[in-house]
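[audit] Reproducing an earlier prediction to check determinism. Same input, same settings, fresh worker. If the tokens differ from the archived copy the diff job will pick it up downstream; this log only records the rerun itself.
[audit] input (193 residues):
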Amino acid sequence: MPLDTLSFNPNYIKALDFFKAKTNYQPTPLKSINPDIGLSLLAKDETNRMGLGAFKALGGPYAIAQIIAQIWKNETGESLSADRYADPDIKAFAAERTFICASAGNHGIGVAAGAKALGAQARIFLADTVPDSFDARLTSYGADVVRSGATYEDSIAAAIESANRDNNILLQDGTWPGYTEIPKLIMEGYTVI
């Protein structure tokens, strides 16, 4: 494997600037935890992250925005500033894109919410064992939910197949040989933590 595919040099400032331009962004608090052993610990409280309930609310939305920005730049030559994502021409452009992932938890919520915020489509693949309440949460963000297989691995395989077949954008948060760049964008979004 070439060495450059193993490198990861996230641009924390770029990610932070993206989120600071959003009306629902604010730093999450540090909370003091006093375990019985007599030590005081600080923990990041991510339960209210952008109304989505987890740090994974950072990865999917950020990656979607960066992908839209790159496609836009390739087609128009314009680099998007963080405040341009709300403009009607960008939302219409994003509406032509569908982002696909498999999920067993919060990554799917981040992808669904990120797609909705930019005007794009989201299709989230879930294993049959994922609770129906999670399915309902995803659809509340406008995602198309597809049940696929008994395991998380089955849902990943179905998501990959669907993205390839329909020429959509796979936004999986795991890596494998040949699939590293999009997960790096997701991780870059997480650096805002």
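[audit] rerun output stored. Observation attached for the diff report: The chain has a mean pLDDT of 90.
[audit] end
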